[in-house]
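#struct-pred

JT: dropping the chains for the assembly here, can someone run the whole complex?
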Amino acid sequence: MDTERRQIRSFFAQYLRSEDFDDADDVFTSGRMNSLFAIQLVLFVEKQFSLTVDSQDLDVRNFSSVDAVYNFVLRKGAVSTRQASV
Amino acid sequence: MIANDVAQSAPKIKCVVWDLDNTIWNGILAENDAVHLRPDALQLIKEFDRRGILQSIASKNEHDPAMEKLRSFGLDEFFLYPQISWERKSTGIRRLSKSLDVPVDAFGFIDDDPFERDEVLNTFPGIQTFDATDLGVLFAADALVSKVTTEDGRRRRLMYQRDIKRKQAEEEAGADNSDFLSSLGLVLTISRASEEDLDRAEELTIRTHQLNTTGRAYSREELSGFINSHTHELLITGLEDKYGPYGRVGLLLLECHPHLWTIQLFLTSCRVISRGIGGVLLHWLAARAKARGVRLQGTFVPNDRNRIMWITYHFANFREIGSSSGVVILANDLSRVQPVPSYIALQLEAPCPIGRTER
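RK: done, full complex below.
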């Protein structure tokens, strides 16, 4: 399970170009977020964890932080399909 | 499905790539520094620039002396991403196509050497090549005569150059992305579209595919109708930062009834995709609707390219409530309206009645 969290965190870090953030930090309300990151994050989650993000799942609360994405992925019961090589 | 990609009789050239030796100047720089600028080339370069055609260089030369020579002629600023090296010219053109985000088929290539023209043509059969021996005929060449360009179209080269500077700054920044965004000093303006905006507005509906909620193209006449309609608001947005204006980059068509506003079209230019404008505008509109006590809905026509807008709608708290004949209706319950992020300064340009309660 730590693998998933690490993968998600590294995806956020890559976009934010910083490691200086907490897993609980909301990147949307802090204004660090944009449409490009939104679609990239959704596509990343779908591909990395082999799941489909439905319209009902497209809630900012599922994607706003590393914790949020991690919990969302757990809820969807997905497991990582690839190593942390993104 | 996307009716915008209208086939044109003569494929228009968006970017002209020039050779240097015996094309822009007479003589071969590597052999003799005293080369002479061709007056017809100079004229043509300036003319293409006026027409909004992008220009670059593909030349086999030492990079620095060649650029220095262009500078001495006062021409360096006209060329984006000059490809000056000893590699194959097709390699440089491929790189240019990627950097400018212009397909190779929309390129023209001018060179005096038939060998070079053939090399490029063999690699890219869709490209149009021209013999530099007779530059005069190019003034009236069909593929290089642009249709009427709007103000933003004519300033295309300058916009690209600012974008290049921004990209470099972004790459060099390396630091936290939000620090970079804050450092740009972004100013977003929202105003009611006027008659002078209509050409650009039409162009935006035709050219914008990914960040477009319906993918529907509107004619100038239709858009003019909305400006004069009592039940519609056509808002146009501009963006600027410390490097200069991005131009008018967004369009929002709102159908306004006393208790309900419906977004009939919402688009933003892909050039500003990484600036977060889409979400900001939707939240701004939601705040206005809330202040007015009006319900807010949006429409969406899914196609194979605009999923990004579907996500933008949802992340701005819009939820699907129904659909009819291919048009999805979404509603925002206005329960989670976010303020404009601190890295963007919002300017409402009068007259903008939607925003009036704010001021």
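JT: nice. The domain at 2-75 of chain A is CATH 1.10.1200.10 (Non-ribosomal Peptide Synthetase Peptidyl Carrier Protein; Chain A). Chain A touches chain B at residues 15-18, 20, 28-36, 38-39, 42, 55, 58-60, 63 (CB under 8 Å).
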